[in-house]
Amino acid sequence: MEAVDGAVFREIVRLNGMEYWQACLIVCPAAAIGGAINSVAGGGTLVTFPALMLVLESLGGSAGTAILANGTNTVALAPGAFSGSWGYRRELKQLGRWARWLAIPSLIGGILGSLLVVYSPESSFRAMIPWLIGLATVLFIVQPRLTPQVAVTENPQGQSRRFRNLVFLLQLLIGIYGGYFGAGIGILMLSSLSLLNLGTIHQVNGLKTVLAGLINGVSVVVFIANGKVDWSLAVPMIVSAMLGGWLGAVWARRLDRRVVRRVVIGIGITLTVWFFGRMLLLA
Question: For residue 254, what is the DSSP state?
Answer without folding.
Answer: T
